[in-house]
Amino acid sequence: MAEPIHHRPQQPLTPLLTARLPLLLDFHAACRALCSAVLEHLATALGIPADWFASRHDPDGGPSGSVLRMLYYPGARGPPADDDDDEARGDIRAGAHSDFGSITCLFQLPGQPGLEILTPEGEWAAVAVDPDPLAPSASSPPSESPSPSELSAAAAPSPSSTTATTAAATAPRGRRNLPILVNIGDLLEEWTGGLLKSTRHRVVFPSPAPSPSSSHPGEASGSSSSDRYSLAYFCHPLDDAALEPVPSRLVQEHIASSSRTEAATTTATTTTAKRAVITAKDHLARRLAETYTIPTASP
Ligand SMILES: O=C(O)CCC(=O)C(=O)O
Ligand SMILES: [Fe+2]
């Protein structure tokens, strides 16, 4: 679902979603608010005005590539193959990739593990679905729901963070607290000259299945044959936002030090071309083309 304009969807929705439109729009708005708050914390950490990123993502300023995806992965695996490679064996639900935009907020069901990130050492590591299972549930003594800015205060990674970060969010009363995973995307990595890192990740079939006693009310089954549902809000800057250099000393120092390393291995032309200012819309179009264009065979 693309970014609603003035709280109205911009595309036809199925009857099921139309019946829940107010909930969907509120959820969309909450995701937006959370992203703004996270972007403000990132800007503060980089020593630039707090609204530097957030103002370039403000939906009142025009269209953007932001999108909310409702993801469903069927329980059945692909055909078994006698192969060491996870992808060839059909153990993968979503292949290795990084997200294209600025940040992604991912909502997973506590009983459904499977998300993995690629560590700087090149190993796949499972992301805890519920990093703090002992956190009080919303059915225990009621507490005030945190505001989006309180949520993202816990979520904002330090500038040198290389992996996804989680934040606890309070679910409606009677439901368990659900963590929100905040992932940095390719655009923010490029915009900060590589200081903020876009995390490569994938979704695998979980194994082994958890014992029934380990599940909580309202949780989905995490067995490897069960379906998986998740929600991902991909936050992008306004289409017209120019990806001009971020006026941060930390970013500039990082670019200078990586350019010194790069200069030893690449030509000046490549380095300059890489730093040309493009808009967020051009960036998205370029990433989509890189991902989905099938190279034509040379004659
Ligand atoms: O479903 C998930 O847990 C992750 C989905 C994802 O990484 C994506 O859609 O980009
Ligand atoms: Fe992703």
UniProtKB/TrEMBL annotation:
Keyword Glycosyltransferase among record annotations: no
Residues that span the membrane, as ranges: none
Record's compositionally biased regions (Low complexity): 212-226
Domain Fe2OG dioxygenase residues, every copy: 63-237
One Pfam family matching this protein: 2OG-FeII_Oxy
Gene3D superfamilies, alphabetized: B-lactam Antibiotic, Isopenicillin N Synthase, Chain
Region Disordered, annotated ranges: 72-93, 131-172, 203-226
Source taxon at top rank: Eukaryota
Annotated keywords: Iron, Metal-binding, Oxidoreductase
The family this protein is said to belong to: Belongs to the iron/ascorbate-dependent oxidoreductase family.
Protein known as: Clavaminate synthase-like protein
Organism (species): Dissoconium aciculare CBS 342.82
